[in-house]
Structure formats: structure tokens, C-alpha cells
Amino acid sequence: MSTKYEIKYKSFNDIKSNMDKYNLSPIEIILIDESKRSKLPEHKIIEKFEHILEVMKDSINQKAKDDRFHVSVDMAEKYSNRTKSFFSPLVQDIILSALSTSVNNACMHRIVSAPTGGASGVMPGVLVPIIKFYKFDDDIAIKALLIGAAIGNVIKNLATLSGAEGGCQAEIGSASAMTAGAVAYLFQGDITTVESASSIALKNMLGLTCDPVAGLVEIPCIKRNAMGALNALLAVDLSLSGIKTTIPLDEVILAMKDIGDKMDSTLKETGLGGLAATETGKKLLKNLEKSHNR
């Protein structure tokens, strides 16, 4: 199929324009573009995404144990032992899955950067429990992953996926936007619904700083993964109800870039501002340095 079309996308609007021009689905557009860029046949791309999905599942189920990360390594375990919750069992599973993956990332276990290690809990945290709960087959799950990956690619093209360059809005915000678009597609949302879900999710994260305490991807990163997961759910719920984004996704991404460019460097992964610069944050850094020097 890929040899028949001159397809390349930089923006989300490009995806929609190619859909209209060639009368193709978004999945077909994404696969054609990816095949040309990677020089892989489309079935090989599908195989890669099948592997990605399996690694996501594994990243939730790993048991993290690492004394070096004593501050937050037990966070997922504590949540799993809760006795009360405001949320349904599915949403509780999503929160736990996001926390578990993020803790495993902090402990240097295998995860999928979706789009980064620091934001790796959002997409598997939402997708894996939903796929299991609603019994989606692997075919539709892989297509949802492709949608999420394409949204991440658009963000990379128009802005950045790096907290050091754009703040945490570029990491957790992007992960939440990717996840929202993927889940909207899972529930048979059309391209407008997918865009609205993704756009709403990213809008809710604009301005989020990257201020990891002691330079570790723990505080506030692990909890933010859970927040990003729930934010994605909210965005999907709104979009599936018919609520549309006022600002197109591409413009929201450009706004994120503008905000990131204006954000002070102390708030972009340097550990010099925000939570990292609090008295408690400084104490944690000193304690960590002492433990490493023993």
C-alpha cells in the first residue's frame, strides 16, 4: 500500500488532510508514513508494536525493589494495600498500574518510554487495564497504540517531548495527550473525537514544571504519572460525550512550546527550582548524597 501514496505528516492536521485526500483511515496514514521513515514493511511495524504492548504489560507487573530509591519505591505497594477509595475498581487499577510502572522506571527496570521514562506510567497505566477490563483484542489495542504514537510524533515535530526543554508539560502532558487519543480511538471515536480528547488532556497540563527532587525521577514524577492517567480518562470521557476542543491540537502543542520556551531554566529538569529547591527537597538531596558516599 505504501508505494501508492505520497504521504508524510508533521502535524495532526496533516493526518486529517491526508485522510481526506486519499480516503484512508488514520491507521493507514500512520503505517504508510512509518513504513517510509523506518524502511520496514507494515507487518514488521505491527510486530514491533505487539512487542511494545507486551513490554508495557510486563512493566506493570514487575516488583520493584531497590534500596537506593527508598523515598518512593513502596508507593505502589502502599496503594495496592488501600482499604478505601473513591474510585471504581477499574480506575483504582489504572492508578495502581501507573504508579507501578513509574516506580519500576525509577528502579531502572524495563519500561516503554511513552514518550519518556519519566512519563512511562501514563499510557500503560491506562491502556493495559482498559484493554483487560473491556476485553479488547490485540488488533484494536495495537491500532490504539499507533494513534498514541502518532500524537507523540506530532508533539515531537511541533514542540518537544523533553522535560529539560519544555518542562513536565512536555513529558506527563504529552503522555496524557497520547493516551487520551489512543483510548478515544479504542472506544470507536472518530478523528475529531481523538483530537478533542488529546487536545483537552494537553490543555489541562500546560505550564507544568519539571522539578524532580534530588535529581531522581521520583518526586513528584511518580504521583504525576497517576495524575496524567486520570487526566487522560477525563479528557476521553468529555470527548466521547460530544464535547469538542475549541483550540485544535496543533495549536495547543504550539502553545505548549511557547510556554516551555518562556519557562525559566530552573524549572526544566535542573533541580534548581520548584519542589527541588524546597527545604525538604534540599534535605533529601543531602541525605541521598550521604548514603552514596558510605
From TrEMBL:
Superkingdom of the source species: Bacteria
Pfam families xrefs: SDH_alpha
Keywords attached to this entry: 4Fe-4S, Gluconeogenesis, Iron, Iron-sulfur, Lyase, Metal-binding
Domain Serine dehydratase-like alpha subunit: 23-276
Enzyme Commission no: 4.3.1.17
GO molecular function, one term: metal ion binding
Keyword Iron: yes
Cofactor: [4Fe-4S] cluster
Pathway: Carbohydrate biosynthesis; gluconeogenesis
EC primary class: lyase
InterPro entries recorded: Fe-S_L-Ser, Ser_deHydtase-like_asu, Ser_deHydtase_asu
Catalysed reactions, as listed in the record: L-serine = pyruvate + NH4(+)
Sequence similarity: Belongs to the iron-sulfur dependent L-serine dehydratase family.
Name of the molecule in the record: L-serine dehydratase
Organism encoding this protein: candidate division TA06 bacterium
Gene: sdaAA
